[in-house]
Amino acid sequence: xxxxxxxxxxxxxxxxxxxxxxxxxxxxxxxxxxxxxxxxxxxxxxxxxxxxxxxxxxxxxxxxxxxxxxxxxxxxxxxxxxxxxxxxxxxxxxxxxxxxxxxxxxxxxxxxxxxxxxxxxxxxxxxxxxxxxxxxxxxxxxxxxxxxxxxxxxxxxxxxxxxxxxxxxxxxxxxxxxxxxxxxxxxxxxxxxxxxxxxxxxxxxxxxxxxxxxxxxxxxxxxxxxxxxxxxxxxxxxxxxxxxxxxxxxxxxxxxxxxxxxxxxxxxxxxxxxxxxxxxxxxxxxxxxxxxxxxxxxxxxxxxxxxxxxxxxxxxxxxxxxxxxxxxxxxxxxxxxxxxxxxxxxxxxxxxxxxxxxxxxxxxxxxxxxxxxxxxxxxxxxxxxxxxxxxxxxxxxxxxxxxxxxxxxxxxxxxxxxxxxxxxxxxxxxxxxxxxxxxxxxxxxxxxxxxxxxxxxxxxxxxxxxxxxxxxxxxxxxxxxxxxxxxxxxxxxxxxxxxxxxxxxxxxxxxxxxxxxxxxxxxxxxxxxxxxxxxxxxxxxxxxxxxxxxxxxxxxxxxxxxxxxxxxxxxxxxxxxxxxxxxxxxxxxxxxxxxxxxxxxxxxxxxxxxxxxxxxxxxxxxxxxxxxxxxxxxxxxxxxxxxxxxxxxxxxxxxxxxxxxxxxxxxxxxxxxxxxxxxxxxxxxxxxxxxxxxxxxxxxxxxxxxxxxxxxxxxxxxxxxxxxxxxxxxxxxxxxxxxxxxxxxxxxxxxxxxxxxxxxxxxxxxxxxxxxxxxxxxxxxxxxxxxxxxxxxxxxxxxxxxxxxxxxxxxxxxxxxxx
Length: 819
Fold this sequence. Notes:
The protein is α+β, with helices and mostly antiparallel strands. Among the domains are: 1-91 and 150-225 and 327-385, FAD/NAD(P)-binding domain, CATH 3.50.50.60; 494-581, Aminomethyltransferase beta-barrel domains (Alpha-Beta Plaits), CATH 3.30.70.1400; 724-819, Elongation Factor Tu (Ef-tu), domain 3 (Beta Barrel). Helix content is 25%, strand content 28%. It has 18 helices and 37 strands. The strands form seven sheets. Strands 1, 2, 8, 9, 10, 11, 17 and 18 form an eight-stranded mixed beta sheet that branches. An eight-stranded mixed beta sheet has the order 5-6-4-13-14-15-12-16, with helices on both faces. Strand 36 (791-795) and strand 37 form a beta hairpin. Helix 1 packs parallel to helix 8 and helix 2 (63-83) packs across helix 5. The longest helix is centred in the first third of the chain and has 21 residues, at 63-83. It is globular, with a radius of gyration of 27 Å.
């Protein structure tokens, strides 16, 4: 341990576990040598020391997860040779069994996707699984999946190797030095007050594991994070167990198994897990254990023993219980804190700190040094939690018991969290529930997913990768949108009023499209970073000369607000107000939408008086609402922005006015199927910060010649000047009407893998599953190649012929929208 505490540094990292040491290692690798790590006790003393150390990927469902995982596995594999510090890394391989048809479907889809990103996965028979893991019971297994390159490492030794590598490049590590307070000035972190004195710093990083929530709170940083009990049992030596025994992960019993000094380690990610210290994490907890709750955990161990029966009769060496921290959505908290510039976060690894630590360290180091994250950050950016509602003690107490099993068990395309629901509800919630809504959850919002004929039928009978019990009702909603009219509660959309002398200048600097338009115009635009990568896609409506409305999806609420505020200069005259809670957004769409709205409004709704992409205040019954003539479903229609105090009345008027016009309520499943038939993009779902509008087919909304330019203008100009890109986003329609697309299915051009589907749904109008995804042909992907190519999509191991298009397959001329 260094003895003299410096008074300043480029970066101070709070936390000396796997994440803090990974970040120090990577910052110094990028040339930032003046790095300090503060550890309140000894390195690894929080949760790193008792981590199991598996390097196994389970089923990874996103590009960023695959990228971070493979980077970390490869780094750890070479860390001992680089640093001279033993890590204990071994690659005995890894097995996952599939005992049900649904799990087999999930595994087959996931295996294809992971193979694409360098994670080698093979489907094997139950007999082959038993041959590799002879003490396992695979009598009920349909198939298993073998990962030959995966394995395990020693968490303490690996962290020490990272620390050694960081020290060799100038980093200094101070043990027994606690961070008492993050020092701030004018909305920026400027240093850390420690138990041994103050350190001024250009960057401060919270990487303190389960203590991160409280450290952040003292600086006004919202980090929803909760520790939970995590168990593993170690048996006495068992016959047939060798060091070469593969790791076995069994989602059917929420357990994992591996060799441990001749015995078996059985780890649990059980249902109904126990939160640990909702109020505050003990500051002196170090290399500690939690007294195990035998009564609670014994039934879960008995379930695990069914997979490895020999373990039930083995001698018990140890039942260990230690804390691990989890986030409300099971994604890490990484990035710059939205409330405090130059304060960075690397926490909430959801018991995967050893596995994902190197990747997170690499990504955040580049973010700090280069100013941009090199991987898709939309799923883990710490600014995704727009407020503190996910961080109350009651919410953490309710949500945490679900998290362990949720991270480990089977997953389905439309599955939501079951606990801590009702966080954010539209004022229309009760009306929609009475109308038969089955609700899903997104970023805390209760959203109608689909509507049943009666409230009693609004339930999912069985989750599946195929057609579920609500399929036909959803299809009827879809057809109503294309043939009659639908009404949708879109209150979850984030809405910001941006006002003031410099409001137009700010939004024009952020926007690729031209925002300096006449009042009453709606503008669709992307916001990009200096490299041309998306940071948002949204609409900006000019209400008055100095007043604008910004509308963006609920998944981008926090990031959009942060992006605006970060780019508002200290002398700018701009006010940004989040008006989401006060506005109920009711969307009315369909070829008969004008007839319906015309029954309750005296406004002139004709194309001449109210053209597409325009906005007006109109009357609806007794009430004045802001109406935007825009669409995300590809039909004539309006977004009605209604003050919450009038929303129920306006909704009732529209439903009554539409009874003779076939009006139906519609949910998120129908929104997805409608928008994908029109190939509309969605930031955070199918485009992210590593994609750009040119390759995504949104060049029409990029005004490279607008006065003053915009952030990222030069990067996009260079991309466009390079000509037809090799990588382009296409729309796909399966020729066979039976298979379904959910996302991550592989794309083949003339027999060669060229990409994967980002998101899919069923196009009830087009007559088959539809999806959008990037294809990279390795050469300019021209319209002629797209049209003449033989396209296929891999669905759970089966290639299905598909039609590909650069333009929407439904209504490319936009006649329906302008009707």
